[in-house]
Each structure stands twice: as C-alpha cells, then as structure tokens.
Amino acid sequence: MKFVNTAIKTALGLALASAIPVSAQAQAPAAAAQAAPRPLKLSPQAQKAIIDLQTAVKAKNVAAIPGLAAAAQALAKVPDDRYAIASLQLQAAIDADDNTALVAAADAMRANGAPGPDLIRIYVHAGQKFGNAQQFGMATNALDKAISLDPNNTDALLLKSDLLLKQKLNGPSVEALTQAIARQKATGVAVPESWYQAAVARSYEAKLPATYELSRQWASAYPTPTHWRDAINIYRNMSGAERPALIDLFRLARVTKALGGESDYLPFAEALIARGYPGEAVAVLQEGAAANSISLQSVTLARTFALAKGKSIGDRASAATAAKAALAGATGKPAMLVGDRLLGYGDYAQAAALYRVALGKADADQDLVNLRLGQALVQSGDKDGAIAALKAVGPGQAEIAKYWLAWVSSRA
C-alpha cells in the first residue's frame, strides 16, 4: 500500500469550505484557491508508519491515531515525513472537531513547508471556532497566526476585531478594524460602509482620538448629508468645539448640505453675528427657511434673523471699502478680518486675495488664515489650491482643516 497525499486536499477543501467566517461587519469572502496535493517523498524508515497512520485516520480509528502518530514521528527523517504526519493529524482533528489539535497540526505543517493560503484558512477557521466557544485567547492566537502569514487578510482582521469587542476591548477592536479598512482600501476595492459604521461607533463609545479620522473617512467614502452631519457632530461632541471653531464646522456643514433643524441653524447664526459676519447669518437663515429645515416664525429664530438683518445694513459696502485698504496694507490682521466678511458674502476670489495678503504676517493667525483660504479657494473652483492651503494648516486648526480636506479631496 502506498501513502496517498489526499488528507490535506480533503482538509482544505470539503471539510473547511463551509467554515469561512462571516463577520458581523464583513461580507462573505471568496473561498481561497484550493492547492493541489503536495507531492511528497517519504523516507524509507518512516513510510510504513505513515501509511499505518493514514489507514487509521481514514477509518476514523480514534483510539489508534495518537499512538500511530507518535510512532511515525519517532521514525521521521525528512521534512516531507513530518509534513505528511501533520496533514494526517489535521484530518483527524477535523474529524474530531478538535480545534486545539487543528492548530497544532497546522503549526507542524507550517514548519515543514505548507502553502500559506492553505494555512490561513485553517487558522481563521480555528479562530472562529474558538471564538464561538468563548476561548478568546486561543482564538486571537490562531487569528494572529493567519495575519502573520498574510497581513492583508481582512477576514482574519475582522474576526479578530469582533472577538476583541466581545471582550470589551474597544481600543484593540478598533485598531484591528482600522487595519482591515486600510488593507481593503489598498487593494482598490470599496470598503463596505458597515465597516466604517462599526469602527466609528466603537471608537466613539471609547472616546478614542481615532474617531475623528474614522468619521472623516466614512463621510468621504459615503458622502451623504446625513453622514457629513454625523461626522461633524462627532467632532463637536468629542472636542467641545466653541466659537470660532463652530463657524468653520458649520460652514462645512453648509456646503455639504448637512445643516439640520434649529439646533444647527441657530448656533451657527449666533456665532456668525458674534464674530461680525451678519450678512452670512442672514443668508444661512434664509437658506434654512427655503429648504423647510427651519421656520423664521420661531420666536428665537425670528429675533436672531432680525438682529442679523439689522447689523448687515451697509456691511457689504463697508467691507468692499475696507478690502481696498487691507490689500494695500502692510499688516495681515485687517486683511484677514475683511476676508472673513467677504467669504460670508460669497465673494470667494476677493476673500482669497485678502487671505494671501495675511499669509506670512506675524499679526495674523496663520493656521486660521490657511483654513479660511482653503474654504475660499475650493468654493471659487480652485481645488488644488484649496488642498495645498488646508495641508498647510498647523496644530491650532489641524483637526477642522482635516474635515475640510476630506471633503475637498473627495470632490470630483
């Protein structure tokens, strides 16, 4: 009787075909290509013992298998001997539904030249089974072995993330899920929205700094007004942003159509009036009313709208006059202040010119200048210039600039 290397084919084919994990956040992955049985050259000393072990495994003679495996291992002389023994032990472990033995057999096969894709399927399968049994340490160990063989294996990363979440380890869970998102993006395949949603939810619950970047990625990949509103509100809630930061966040919400209801329009208008941009406040409230998002008959909104209209009388004309002086001035702050007023009136080209005057001037907040310059440029049609300005924003306004940059970069 000859040794026939079919155990590995059976183990990696039919026995594991239904064991590919489907994470709560993942789509079912395509089955890995099944490798042809590896041709083996057994040593004369071990061949008979390996054939005896094969006979016992095929007959599912559970009582005889451990002793025959030990006898074969004692006679093994070459890597192919040990590979053959391990592949038979793998089949026996599958038959017995013994995941500890499954991993041990896979380890032995790995040490003796088993193909990586085959082993990955085994480790992921074992990780899922251990996880179902709440043997989390064993599950993570198996999945880490799969990831070590293929750092881009999103199935292993997603399953690991879910298992970590079950242990209330939100930080490591988010880290694994973030890695899966990055690996998926690197392949050029769209990341399922559910992956972003899970990552943002877990990160937000744990109040992790990564929440900001994840929310930006989510809104950029699936750019709906609702998603942008959620992303912006996540930043507002976690950072406790106040004026003037609120203005730049609300301006982003405005251009992404993400303003919703009095809870957005009222603080936006109030912040604009307080900073001296009444014309922009009027325009914002009128837009909200036209979209039926707010009613200017509301007592609070009516009062705010009247205040903005009153303060805006003559403001645009005075801003135009001030702009001429600021453009010719030697200091930056006046240019920036007038630029801010014109930005609110939609005069983006003139605002950009004033912000450029303010660049490099010691009396102007350079981070804020670049942030506002980026806003003016993108809305005047200069996407590349906007990206350059936003990337130049320093620590003082960095996070808000990244939200704007995410939106600008995602535009056609």
Throw out a few tags for this protein.
23 helices; mainly alpha; elongated; 412 residues
Give a written overview of the molecule:
The protein has 412 residues and is an all-alpha fold. 71% of the residues lie in helices and 0% in strands. It has 23 helices and no strands. The longest helix has 18 residues, at 79-96. It is elongated and about 100 Å long. The model is unreliable at 7-36 (pLDDT under 50).
Query: How would you spell out the order of helices and strands?
Result: HHHHHHHHHHHHHHHHHHHHHHH
Low-confidence stretches: 7-36
Note the gap between the termini: 68 Å
* Secondary-structure-derived class: mainly alpha
How are the SSEs ordered, and which strands pair?
Blueprint: H1 7-12, H2 14-17, H3 44-59, H4 65-75, H5 79-96, H6 99-111, H7 116-132, H8 136-149, H9 154-166, H10 170-186, H11 193-205, H12 210-221, H13 225-239, H14 245-255, H15 262-275, H16 278-290, H17 299-312, H18 315-328, H19 333-344, H20 348-358, H21 366-379, H22 383-391, H23 398-410
Give a nutshell description of this structure.
With 412 residues, the chain is an all-alpha fold. It has 23 helices and no strands. It has helices at residues 7-12, 14-17, 44-59, 65-75, 79-96, 99-111, 116-132, 136-149, 154-166, 170-186, 193-205, 210-221, 225-239, 245-255, 262-275, 278-290, 299-312, 315-328, 333-344, 348-358, 366-379, 383-391, 398-410.
